[in-house]
Amino acid sequence: MYRATVFLRQLEPRTARTTAEVVKFALWPLAIMTVLHRVLVKAVNGARTDDFTPVYRAALAFLNRQPVYTANFNWVDPHYLYAPSGTLLLSPIAIIDPERSRWLFILGNAVAVIIAGYLLLKMFGLALDSVAAPILLLGMFASETVTNTLVFTNINGLILLGEVAFLLLLLRRRDAWAGVAIGLTLAIKPVLAPLLLLPLVTKQWRALVTAIGVPLVLTAIAWPLAVDPMEFVHHTLPYLMESRDYFNSAIVGNGAYYDLPSWMILALRAIFAVVVLVSLWLLYRYYREDRLFFLTTATGVLMTAYFLIGSLGQMYYSMMLLPLLMSVVLRNSVMRNWPAWLAVYGFMTFDSWLSGRFPATGRAAEYMKSTLGWSLLLLVICGVLVARYLTAKREGRLDRGIDPVFDEPEPEKVPVG
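Above: the chain's sequence. Below: its structure in token form.
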């Protein structure tokens, strides 16, 4: 009887004794079950939007030496838009049947997101047993960006992993490998191309060499293996250069959808371009030596600008802003204010604002939420940095930087190596 009692006591769940333990005990089950639900139920069920089928068909055509770039762009269904280098990298998915291949693709992207989250924790000097771990995991898989990446079955989870690996390797001064990490993503889709500015301004030249070299080498291999590589240039590339008015949350996309005059669209893009340039200048001038803050914040500015000011911005691209959101753990983070997280709600929420009672208002809120979220985020970052600059200038301490003066002693630097 005594042995049975001792055994049962060992099975009894621990009772939290600190606030941190309460948070961890509460959030780990919620995070794990959310991950399982998103992968095994939402993603496997799928949705009307299917990004995987065009990729599978293109990979199958590539392996069978058939034309790949045959999409009819008059339809709004997902098209195959990847370059021959991306086709080469993705072609193994067509070795098995489409259903099992799709499941593996979902699993691969889910695992990539989890690994990216783990690398983000390491980047900011946080452990798996910290409160931040379950918060990050739950936040990622509860968001629209991760959920729809899995449901639509696209490649963005792996692109996120490449982005985080790129930043971490830059921080650790492993420049050539950092270039390989981002180069593999660029070989598939150029969404992270603005981040090549980072090794340029930090003078980490080897990262640039491999970042450009990897897609060039893969293109050289794929070009003679493809049946119609020039069709990518003549047929697909012109479409990629256009700004469409559907499934496009960029200023130009929503402006076209709501039939705004061209001058207004151009003016809005110009205004936010100035906001971005001011933010990047202040970051470079006063923060480039604070490498963790500089790289993660500049990444957020560059990627948000790409989504908002560029020709195509889709809400689930916001996954690439996770390094910026994670920077909230830094004492000088630009994310430590409520307007920043109101912006995050706009481009990360899985809530639908479509309303049966107020259809026009609900549709506008649904279609504009990510556009407004990205816009507000850029304004907040610029506002925080400009306010810091003006305060430091007024107090005569610009030569010491523009960080706010903290009352408490400065903590130890966050380890990144």
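The first helix runs from residue 2 to 11.
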